[in-house]
TrEMBL record:
<protein>
    <submittedName>
        <fullName>Putative auto-transporter adhesin, head GIN domain</fullName>
    </submittedName>
</protein>
<feature type="compositionally biased region" description="Low complexity">
    <location>
        <begin position="227"/>
        <end position="245"/>
    </location>
</feature>
<feature type="region of interest" description="Disordered">
    <location>
        <begin position="224"/>
        <end position="245"/>
    </location>
</feature>
<feature type="domain" description="Putative auto-transporter adhesin head GIN">
    <location>
        <begin position="48"/>
        <end position="229"/>
    </location>
</feature>
<dbReference type="InterPro" id="IPR021255">
    <property type="entry name" value="DUF2807"/>
</dbReference>
<dbReference type="Pfam" id="PF10988">
    <property type="entry name" value="DUF2807"/>
</dbReference>
Length: 245
């Protein structure tokens, strides 16, 4: 009998401990951080051709002869911000030990001569434009991020997942795209000669193709295309569709 009571009390204290952790986490998540405390910073960084930013930031990337990294946001967020260049990649994130409630978005304005790739995550909003002579461009968006691309490149590779959305204006000779997890690609305004695209998990894609289209759609996904490609190879399953507008 004593053993049973001991286990009952032990279980009760365990549940109380878990409840305390949940309540504490909830307080952190929903704490009132007060009014916006504006701060601006300029980082003297150069030599990067790719940009990786997440944490619900707002990012503007533009082409320019010189490098520039300008950040605007709440001073408490900027105190925790890490901005650096690693292996040719401009990276920005927050120190992992501080789980502050980041109620206000941090805004980045980045100028660079050449752009080869972007990686946005965690509900980040991005606008990328002005790059007219890129050789190869890579764009990855995840975690409900949103982006706009205005570029011209010989080749472009796109990876969208987790309900992310990407729209584009421009042109490319070749495009390879992998769209999954309820993501959306809106590229009717982006003309491409050769397109290879895969959509899965309830995703939607719109592409503009002039020569060759290879498309696969599964899991309730839909691919729409405009243009008059001379070669079309398509495969759809699981309530999906591939069709010309």
């Amino acid at each position: 009998m004593k053993t049973i009571r001991f286990f009952m009390f032990a279980r009760m204290f365990t549940l109380l401990g878990l409840l305390s952790v949940v309540l504490f986490s909830g307080c952190q998540r929903f704490e009132d951080v007060g009014a916006f405390q504006e701060e601006r910073k300029t980082y003297d960084l150069s030599g990067f051709t790719r940009v990786h930013i997440g944490s619900g930031s707002k990012v503007t990337i533009q082409q320019g002869a010189a490098y520039g990294v300008f950040v605007r946001g709440d001073s408490r967020n900027l105190d925790d911000l890490r901005v650096r260049v690693e292996n040719g990649i401009l990276k920005a994130d927050y120190y992992p030990h501080n789980h502050r409630n980041r109620q206000y978005r941090t805004e980045f304005t980045i100028t660079m001569p050449t752009l080869e790739g972007v990686d946005f995550s965690g509900a980040t909003i991005a606008d990328v434009g002005g790059f007219e002579n890129s050789q190869k461009m890579y764009a990855r968006l995840s975690g409900a991020s949103e982006g706009v691309l205005s570029i011209r490149a010989n080749e472009i590779e796109i990876d969208l997942s987790g309900a992310s959305r990407l729209s584009g204006v421009g042109a490319s000779q070749k495009m390879k795209a992998d769209i999954s997890g309820g993501a959306e690609l809106s590229f009717f305004g982006f003309s491409v000669e050769e397109v290879q695209i895969s959509a899965s998990g309830g995703s939607n894609a719109k592409v503009n193709v002039s020569k060759t289209l290879r498309a696969e759609a599964s899991g309730g996904s839909h691919i729409r295309y405009i243009g008059n490609p001379s070669s079309v190879s398509n495969n759809s399953s699981g309530g999906s569709s591939i069709s010309r507008e």
